[in-house]
Amino acid sequence: MFNFNKDLNKIREINGIRDSLIPFLISSLSQNQNIFYVAQNDLELSNVYNFLYSNFKEINIYKIPAWDCLPYDISSPNLNLIGERVQSFTDLCFFKNNKNKSKNVILTTINGLFTKTAPKEFFLKHFINLNLSSDYKFQFIIEFLNNSGYKRVQTVREFGEFSIRGSILDVFPVGNQSAFRIDFIGDNIETIKTMDPLTQRSKDKINDFNIYTSNEFILNEKNIENFRKRFRNKNGAASIKSLFYENISAGMKFNGIEHFLPLFHEKPLNSIFDYLPLGQGIICLLTKNFENLIQERELEINNFGNERKDENTDYNAFEIKELYISKINILNNIKKFNVIKLNEYDKPSSTNQNEINLSSKPLIIPNIINSEKINKINNFVQFCINEFNNNKIITIITEDETKINNLVSFFEEDLNKSKIIFELIDIKKLVNGENLSNFNFSYSPYLESFKLNNHIIIFTRDILVFQKIKENHGEEKLKIFLKM
Questions:
Q1: pLDDT tens digits for 400-426?
Q2: Number of domains observed in the structure of the chain
Q3: Which of 31, 149, 243, 314 has the smallest C-beta neighbourhood within 10 Å, fewest atoms?
Q4: What is the domain-level CATH number for residue 311?
Q5: What percent of the chain has pLDDT over 90?
Q6: Which long-range contacts (CB under 8 A, 24 or more apart) does 275-280 make?
Q7: Residue 424 sits in a domain of what CATH number?
């Protein structure tokens, strides 16, 4: 799909790239390089992650979203996002470069670049891997959970909870999609199973799982004292009148407590760059319009921070730079990597050896397909066949693997009449260009359709939105297509 005829280590810009092409590009580059991609926003981050996770199981993906709240907000970040951050930062502490065996992609956003997190020592201290041969005793695991901010409950339902019933320990670790049930014989682990928090039923036996810290801070005696000391140093006698100070001193969590993160840790917070494995051959891909976006974000952080400090002097207990990295710091850290900037448009007159023009374009649906005629679906099939006859490589993608046979059956008769050989493929084969047929069907999370060189990539959602059921000839065929 991609035929780079230049040394990627010398490339500085890739031009003419559509948003929907970026996940394909990242998956292609990651076959030979570790990739650090800075997405524009949470939506793009989610699209890239879903594409890689669904189609490239061999890639280790470190997803680091930003907090989904305004700077110095009175609300807390979503616990799912906290879990993704905690898991990725912890896993990056153990990052080992192994070019022959593993492929690694680290994903974040413009906002994610700015938000600092706990020091490395914190994540390492509050992490264990439990397996069937673990030497960890029952009581040690309970103490670890308590010290890592987990809450003991009657029935485990949510992240960060655990329960004990006799010799059975249920725990729902932050950063995991399922809870786990551990059965002990005495102090030793006998079995580990996944568990559904809704039904409380155990399911598959597994060999091991990871337990991460419950948050980017822990509200224990030591950290409460850190907070109290730092808070009093800045606010003096007025501290005793602060509701924040009173609640935290009493060990009470409240919405927005995360925005006091610098006060809970003895050491300064780390930025995302402190976790990236420098010297491991990482290519840093920067989203389109990167420098303008980080300038806007820094201005937004400073404006919100100053407004909040004017409204409530409690926020004067720490400086903005203690919780957020600066634009200058970001740019200085970026220089340590092999950087490639992505641009929306080609530079046709450029002869720069450090640039590549991909010339990707949106897929323009012909008017005949968008018309109100009853045979518009047939027209779409004919459009694909015509493009195939014009030496284009056609790949039609549905979002649901279970619907791919339905999709193929709709095209099959016309393709056979035209003596066109088609193939069902994995997206991986499309990206790598491995003995690719010129007419293909596949499945993947949705991205917008596009054209790249002689490839036409069509996601069925872009075609289906034009379809309407008619009460006349061709109705049944149209209905079948709409089921995909």
A1: 888 898 889 889 999 999 999 999 999
A2: 3
A3: 243
A4: 3.40.50.11180
A5: 70
A6: 275/89, 275/92, 275/93, 275/120, 276/36, 276/92, 276/106, 276/337, 277/34, 277/92, 277/95, 277/97, 278/336, 278/337, 280/34, 280/95, 280/97
A7: 3.40.50
